[in-house]
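Render this sequence as a predicted structure.
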Amino acid sequence: MAHILSGQVLINGTDIWQEYGVFLTEEKKGGRDNLNAILTPSKTKTHVGVDIREANGKKYSRTLTVANQEREVTLHFAQYAQTRTEWLQKYQAFIQFLKTGENGWLTVRFPSLGLTLRMYYSSSTQFRSLTYLWKEGVQAGRYKVTFKEPEPII
Protein backbone atom coordinates (compact mmCIF):
# COMPACT_ATOMS: atom_id res chain seq x y z
CA MET A 1 0.00 0.00 0.00
CA ALA A 2 2.87 2.39 0.72
CA HIS A 3 3.76 2.79 -2.95
CA ILE A 4 0.17 3.88 -3.69
CA LEU A 5 -0.59 6.06 -0.64
CA SER A 6 2.77 7.62 0.03
CA GLY A 7 3.18 11.22 -1.16
CA GLN A 8 -0.53 11.78 -1.92
CA VAL A 9 -1.19 14.32 0.86
CA LEU A 10 1.48 16.37 2.62
CA ILE A 11 0.54 18.54 5.59
CA ASN A 12 3.18 21.01 6.71
CA GLY A 13 5.67 18.93 4.74
CA THR A 14 4.71 15.68 6.51
CA ASP A 15 3.55 12.71 4.44
CA ILE A 16 0.45 11.74 6.46
CA TRP A 17 0.54 8.13 5.24
CA GLN A 18 4.15 7.54 6.23
CA GLU A 19 3.91 9.34 9.58
CA TYR A 20 0.40 8.47 10.78
CA GLY A 21 -1.00 5.74 8.50
CA VAL A 22 -3.63 8.23 7.27
CA PHE A 23 -4.96 8.62 3.73
CA LEU A 24 -7.92 10.19 1.95
CA THR A 25 -10.87 7.85 1.48
CA GLU A 26 -14.42 7.98 0.16
CA GLU A 27 -17.62 6.86 1.83
CA LYS A 28 -18.74 4.93 -1.26
CA LYS A 29 -16.86 3.12 -3.98
CA GLY A 30 -16.31 5.53 -6.87
CA GLY A 31 -17.07 8.53 -4.64
CA ARG A 32 -15.56 11.93 -5.32
CA ASP A 33 -16.34 13.80 -2.08
CA ASN A 34 -12.71 14.73 -1.36
CA LEU A 35 -12.03 15.96 -4.89
CA ASN A 36 -15.29 17.91 -4.88
CA ALA A 37 -14.44 19.52 -1.53
CA ILE A 38 -10.93 20.46 -2.64
CA LEU A 39 -12.03 21.94 -5.98
CA THR A 40 -15.33 23.62 -5.03
CA PRO A 41 -14.78 27.36 -5.49
CA SER A 42 -15.43 29.75 -2.66
CA LYS A 43 -18.35 32.14 -2.74
CA THR A 44 -17.58 35.75 -3.52
CA LYS A 45 -18.22 38.60 -1.16
CA THR A 46 -21.35 40.58 -1.94
CA HIS A 47 -21.08 43.86 -3.79
CA VAL A 48 -22.50 46.95 -2.11
CA GLY A 49 -25.19 48.68 -4.08
CA VAL A 50 -27.23 51.80 -3.50
CA ASP A 51 -31.00 51.36 -3.59
CA ILE A 52 -32.44 54.77 -4.44
CA ARG A 53 -36.19 54.96 -4.08
CA GLU A 54 -36.67 57.17 -7.13
CA ALA A 55 -34.52 55.00 -9.44
CA ASN A 56 -35.14 51.53 -10.81
CA GLY A 57 -33.11 48.67 -9.38
CA LYS A 58 -29.83 49.16 -7.53
CA LYS A 59 -26.78 51.15 -8.56
CA TYR A 60 -23.33 49.52 -8.38
CA SER A 61 -19.85 50.80 -9.05
CA ARG A 62 -18.77 50.69 -12.71
CA THR A 63 -15.97 48.31 -11.71
CA LEU A 64 -16.90 45.43 -9.44
CA THR A 65 -13.89 44.05 -7.57
CA VAL A 66 -14.23 40.35 -6.91
CA ALA A 67 -13.11 39.11 -3.48
CA ASN A 68 -13.53 35.59 -2.12
CA GLN A 69 -15.24 34.59 1.12
CA GLU A 70 -13.60 32.15 3.51
CA ARG A 71 -14.56 28.58 2.66
CA GLU A 72 -14.84 25.25 4.43
CA VAL A 73 -13.18 22.12 3.09
CA THR A 74 -14.32 18.79 4.56
CA LEU A 75 -12.03 15.85 3.86
CA HIS A 76 -12.63 12.16 4.55
CA PHE A 77 -9.67 10.39 6.13
CA ALA A 78 -9.02 6.73 6.89
CA GLN A 79 -6.35 5.48 9.23
CA TYR A 80 -4.66 2.09 9.38
CA ALA A 81 -2.19 0.43 11.76
CA GLN A 82 -0.94 -3.08 12.50
CA THR A 83 -1.91 -3.05 16.20
CA ARG A 84 -4.50 -1.46 18.45
CA THR A 85 -1.84 0.37 20.48
CA GLU A 86 -0.15 1.75 17.36
CA TRP A 87 -3.50 2.82 15.89
CA LEU A 88 -4.63 4.65 19.02
CA GLN A 89 -1.27 6.38 19.39
CA LYS A 90 -1.19 7.50 15.75
CA TYR A 91 -4.84 8.57 15.80
CA GLN A 92 -4.33 10.82 18.80
CA ALA A 93 -1.07 12.18 17.38
CA PHE A 94 -2.66 12.95 13.99
CA ILE A 95 -5.64 14.79 15.48
CA GLN A 96 -3.28 16.80 17.72
CA PHE A 97 -1.07 17.51 14.68
CA LEU A 98 -4.10 18.87 12.78
CA LYS A 99 -5.30 20.98 15.70
CA THR A 100 -1.94 22.61 16.42
CA GLY A 101 -0.30 22.82 12.99
CA GLU A 102 2.47 25.42 12.75
CA ASN A 103 1.13 28.28 14.85
CA GLY A 104 -2.30 26.82 14.09
CA TRP A 105 -1.81 26.82 10.29
CA LEU A 106 -1.81 23.81 8.00
CA THR A 107 -0.27 23.88 4.55
CA VAL A 108 -2.02 20.99 2.80
CA ARG A 109 -0.37 19.96 -0.45
CA PHE A 110 -1.92 17.64 -3.02
CA PRO A 111 0.99 16.88 -5.41
CA SER A 112 -1.13 15.02 -7.99
CA LEU A 113 -3.40 18.09 -8.34
CA GLY A 114 -0.60 20.63 -8.11
CA LEU A 115 -2.58 22.41 -5.35
CA THR A 116 -1.56 23.74 -1.97
CA LEU A 117 -4.19 25.05 0.46
CA ARG A 118 -3.44 27.11 3.58
CA MET A 119 -6.05 26.18 6.16
CA TYR A 120 -6.68 25.56 9.84
CA TYR A 121 -8.50 22.78 11.68
CA SER A 122 -12.13 23.58 12.42
CA SER A 123 -13.83 20.36 13.55
CA SER A 124 -13.98 16.61 13.17
CA THR A 125 -17.17 14.61 12.91
CA GLN A 126 -18.51 11.16 12.23
CA PHE A 127 -15.72 8.91 13.50
CA ARG A 128 -16.40 5.36 12.34
CA SER A 129 -14.40 2.40 13.53
CA LEU A 130 -13.84 -0.06 10.69
CA THR A 131 -12.50 -2.75 13.01
CA TYR A 132 -13.26 -3.84 16.53
CA LEU A 133 -10.85 -1.79 18.65
CA TRP A 134 -11.38 -4.03 21.68
CA LYS A 135 -9.48 -6.84 19.96
CA GLU A 136 -5.76 -6.89 19.24
CA GLY A 137 -4.66 -6.91 15.61
CA VAL A 138 -4.91 -4.76 12.51
CA GLN A 139 -7.02 -1.65 13.15
CA ALA A 140 -8.70 0.89 10.88
CA GLY A 141 -11.09 3.79 11.26
CA ARG A 142 -12.33 6.74 9.29
CA TYR A 143 -13.48 10.25 10.04
CA LYS A 144 -14.27 13.60 8.48
CA VAL A 145 -12.29 16.71 9.25
CA THR A 146 -13.48 20.21 8.38
CA PHE A 147 -10.90 22.89 7.69
CA LYS A 148 -11.28 26.60 7.08
CA GLU A 149 -9.44 28.31 4.23
CA PRO A 150 -9.57 32.04 5.08
CA GLU A 151 -7.98 33.19 1.82
CA PRO A 152 -9.19 30.70 -0.80
CA ILE A 153 -7.09 30.13 -3.89
CA ILE A 154 -10.12 28.92 -5.85
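Summary. The radius of gyration is 20 Å. The chain is about 20% helix and 30% strand.
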